[in-house]
């Protein structure tokens, strides 16, 4: 398609997490292709600051609540102003559930295409709201096959749901070809000095929000079991959330507080990932787990659960080891196996590093743009 598109990316998130980073990757790649992209975010949010730092066009909304008419009215006016002279109808791409509702309201009397992204494997709240906002999207993008199955359970036709996996932006890799070992040594020394973690010990870590579906308590329980066989090991979680106090209490009960480090939010994921020896994703629910791709890009051996879309990324005993959901004994056994088998550790890390190329941001942008083009064609033909 030679015509350039006006694309509005809606995200009401208050934090900068995996979904927001994925959206920024998409905007970057679509900008490269010459399309006009606008990040429609919450005023003062980390997403707004990051988007502006990258030079992206931003529109801020209050996002008071899900079906917020004020945000919809503001956005409606901004769409008309920005896309009024375009030969193509605008694309409204909502990247969160609440944003899908605002997108629908904002499209009043605007001929446009609405795309709704679903990034989590929670079953949407029952009722008309979920069915209405997803059912009235021209296309739903699911980040994994399990997420697609959840959308199908709402009664959406399969033809309206397309799987586009999350990605890694290889341009953001902070080391040059062949420079990873030096970067890792410097990163490990920095993290060790900052948090008092012995650099000679094995480090097993995770970058997760301390919220129920990420199941940090599963990580802690598994850590206690690993420590029984390898007491020298140090365990690190970077992240914040409502379970922080619960995790600290559990770690104390388990008697591993001297080797367990809750370091809070860490603003340079690659610096921390490259310092780990093993990466663990202990989730009980997971749309896909984009951090897994960043871990693969960092040449890390991975242990994860079989939650949700993780199996779209990790093939057991190929580029990671998988354990059952909420099974700390199995999660610990996989970590112990990697600690005790350097050859397995190396093979899994190498295979993960190779497979990261299957999840590149240009590929994700290409697939997403194809969806836009298909729906614009249907709109022009009167089939939408």
Task: Give structural attributes.
six-stranded parallel β-sheet, Rossmann fold, 2 domains, 384 residues, elongated, alpha/beta, seven-stranded parallel β-sheet, 14 helices
Quickly describe the structure.
With 384 residues, the protein is α/β, with parallel strands linked by helices. The protein folds into two domains: 6-167 and 360-381, 3-Layer(aba) Sandwich (Rossmann fold), CATH 3.40.50.2000; 174-358, 3-Layer(aba) Sandwich (Rossmann fold), CATH 3.40.50.
The end-to-end distance, rounded to whole angstroms, is 19 Å
User: Which class do the helix and strand fractions yield?
Assistant: alpha/beta
Biggest sheet features = 7 strands, parallel
The sequence of SSEs as H and E is EHEHEHEHEHEHEHEHEHEHEHEEHHH
The CATH architecture name of the largest domain reads 3-Layer(aba) Sandwich
Please give the number of β-strands.
Answer: 13
Weakly predicted, low-confidence segments: none
The number of helical runs is 14
Strand order of the main beta sheet, please? 3-2-1-4-5-6-7
State the CATH superfamily name of the largest domain: Glycogen Phosphorylase B
Strand content: 15-25%
> Helical percent range?
40-55%
- Please give the radius of gyration in angstroms: 22 Å
> What's the domain count?
2
Query: Rough shape?
Result: elongated
């Amino acid at each position: 398609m030679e015509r350039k598109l006006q694309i509005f990316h809606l995200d009401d998130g208050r934090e900068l997490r995996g979904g927001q980073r994925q959206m920024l990757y998409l905007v970057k790649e679509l900008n490269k292709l010459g399309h006009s992209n606008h990040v429609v975010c919450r005023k003062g949010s980390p997403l707004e600051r990051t988007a502006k730092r990258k030079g992206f066009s931003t529109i801020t909304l209050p996002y008071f609540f899900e079906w917020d008419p004020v945000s919809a009215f503001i956005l409606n006016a901004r769409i008309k102003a920005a896309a009024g002279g375009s030969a193509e109808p605008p694309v409204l791409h909502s990247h969160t559930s609440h944003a899908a509702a605002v997108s629908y309201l904002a499209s009043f009397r605007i001929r446009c295409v609405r795309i709704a992204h679903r990034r989590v494997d929670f079953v949407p709240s029952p009722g008309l709201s979920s069915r209405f906002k997803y059912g009235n999207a021209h296309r739903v993008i699911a980040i994994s096959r399990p997420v697609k199955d959840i959308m199908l359970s709402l009664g959406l036709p399969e033809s309206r749901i397309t799987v586009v996996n999350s990605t890694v932006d290889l341009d953001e890799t902070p080391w040059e070809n062949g420079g990873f070992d030096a970067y890792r040594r410097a990163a490990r020394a920095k993290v060790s000095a900052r948090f008092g973690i012995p650099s000679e010990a094995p480090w097993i870590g995770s970058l997760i929000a301390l919220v129920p579906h990420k199941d940090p308590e599963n990580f802690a329980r598994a850590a206690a079991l690993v420590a029984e066989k390898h007491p020298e090991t140090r365990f690190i979680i970077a992240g914040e959330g409502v379970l922080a106090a619960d995790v600290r209490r559990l770690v104390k009960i388990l008697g591993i507080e001297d080797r367990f480090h809750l370091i809070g939010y860490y603003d340079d994921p690659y610096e921390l990932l490259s310092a780990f020896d093993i990466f663990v994703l202990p989730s009980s629910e997971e749309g896909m787990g984009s951090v897994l791709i960043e871990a693969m890009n960092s040449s890390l051996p991975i242990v994860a659960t079989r939650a949700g879309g993780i199996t779209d990324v990790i093939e057991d005993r190929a580029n990671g080891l998988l354990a059952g959901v909420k099974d700390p004994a199995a999660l610990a056994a996989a970590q112990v196996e990697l600690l005790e088998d350097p050859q397995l550790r190396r093979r899994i890390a190498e295979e993960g590093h190779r497979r990261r190329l299957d999840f590149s941001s240009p590929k994700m942008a290409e697939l997403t743009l194809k969806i836009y083009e298909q729906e614009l064609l249907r709109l022009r033909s009167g089939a939408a």
